[in-house]
Amino acid sequence: MAGQIMKKIVFSGKIFQIIEEKKGTTTFEFAKRSPGVRLLITNGEKMLLTKEFRAEVNGYDYRLPGGKVFDTMKEYEVSSEHQIKEYSLKAAMKECLEETGIVPKKIKLMETAHAGATVLWDLYYFLVEEFEQHPEGQKLENGEEITVEWKSFEEVKELCLKKGIQEDRSVAVILRFILLRERKESN
């Protein structure tokens, strides 16, 4: 039947799935991963970044604090779009405290970044402009090696441009945030 779409999961791991989608005689393949969260935490003219060891770059990288929304594909698969946004907010609050020792007082979803056409992996970016420091500080998970550093917006822009921040979707979101803020201030 023309126009019919057939989907089949050909592999399912802990946090990834490979899905085949047939449209007529054409087969497409997608990788699907449970979503993640990232936090832009600002204080005046500064942004908080984490510096952590990342196996994928075989070294230290500056990053936005964040993590997974769900620990497994099973948790992700049973969630509706509305629930995913609720879970992403809870994950953002949890990751903020764990990685930075900060408790958000005001947090809002800024944007959602998509990975691309054949990789389905959304990152939910949250803005935190009001917060308080938790008296016990960071609550890192076993194996995490993370320090926090406040950087001026100029320093953050330089890190983005010189690949000091290597997660490119985050680089785009950070630069857009800083440049739009600068544009608004100059008007």
Report what the structure shows:
This protein is 28% helix and 43% strand. The chain has 4 helices and 11 strands, in the order βββββββααββββαα. Strand 4 (36-43) and strand 5 (46-54) form a beta hairpin. The protein starts with a strand and ends with a helix.
Task: Summarize the entry for a quick read.
With 187 residues, the chain is an alpha+beta fold. It has helices at 73-77, 81-100, 153-161, 168-186; strands spanning 5-12, 16-23, 26-33, 36-43, 46-54, 59-63, 66-68, 102-113, 119-120, 123-133, 146-152.
DSSP strand (E) fraction?
Answer: 35-45%
Residue-averaged pLDDT, rounded?
A: 94
Largest sheet: 7 strands, mixed
Through-space gap between termini? 57 Å
CATH architecture of the largest domain: Alpha-Beta Complex
Give the helix proportion (percent range).
Answer: 25-40%
- Tell me the quaternary state: single chain
What topology emerges from the helices and strands here?
Elements: E1 5-12, E2 16-23, E3 26-33, E4 36-43, E5 46-54, E6 59-63, E7 66-68, H1 73-77, H2 81-100, E8 102-113, E9 119-120, E10 123-133, E11 146-152, H3 153-161, H4 168-186
Parallel strand pairs: 3-9, 4-10
Antiparallel strand pairs: 1-2, 2-3, 4-5, 4-7, 5-6, 5-11, 8-10
Helix pairs in contact: 3-4
